[in-house]
Amino acid sequence: LLLGPLLPGQGLQANAPRVSETPGGQLWGEPGGITAAPPATAQEVHPLNKQPHNHSAEGHAKPRKAFPVLGIDYSHVRIPFEISLWILLACLMKMGFHVMSSVSKVVPESCLLIVVGLLVGGLIKAVGEKPPILKSDIFFLFLLPPIILDAGYFLPLRQFTENLGTILIFAVVGTLWNAFFLGGLMYAVCQIGGTGLNHIGLLANLLFGSIISAVDPVAVLAVFEEIHINELLHILVFGESLLNDAVTVVLYHLFEEFANFEQVTVIDIVLGFFSFFVVSLGGVFVGVIYGLIAAFTSRFTSNIRVIEP
Known about the structure:
Elements: H1 42-45, H2 74-99, H3 101-106, H4 109-126, H5 136-153, H6 157-162, H7 164-192, H8 202-212, H9 218-227, H10 231-259, H11 266-298
Helix pairs in contact: 7-8, 7-10, 8-10, 10-11
């Protein structure tokens, strides 16, 4: 009765009889057609109970847990859990290679890692799981920076700066030559290889050439360290393998951008040539700024060890 005046104004009153209609269109009730509605059920009395108890929104019953406090929701934590497992596996493999020095002397560490990757891939296929696909964004944003950081952190600075000119010739000129030579050679093969390869254009071949032109001589450098090779030869190979990644990244993005153009003009080629230097020097500039910031902040962490890592 108290809520009667508060109801929306549509000529309704608190004690007004309800009118219901049958599926055939007639009013439900006595012969007169109008009567009070049947008593409301428990779910109608409580508006919060919009759906039957222990049922989902689709109307399917949810399985009742024997122990409500226990449960495994693997899909919720799958991605971070699997990433952590991969990192843990890599750390354990790295520790095992150094503990078993006799094995690493016979087989290079990079070859052992390839064998581990084949075993893990075979295990994924054996259990029927869909293998993960490595996307370019994941590689450039999450895998390549730690590789460059590791190489730069352990860089012998004096030998590197003394032979910087020779290293740049090998890294820049050599990588550019490899990319264009391999791309042009494969384009020529596509032209004379038959009708099945004629649709592959020059940019696609140059893009592939830029991917495989940068060689990472991990096994060679490991052998150099073990036999204590000449410092000049070691720093030339090490510096070239460090800087050719940057050249390859710039070439890859440049050819990828050209592949989206309907027609590549001379102006696009000239701008791409200048963008090569802009990206390279810009990357060095950003690296110097963040290096100075890191060096400045690390001066004041002697009593704040928690932020040192």
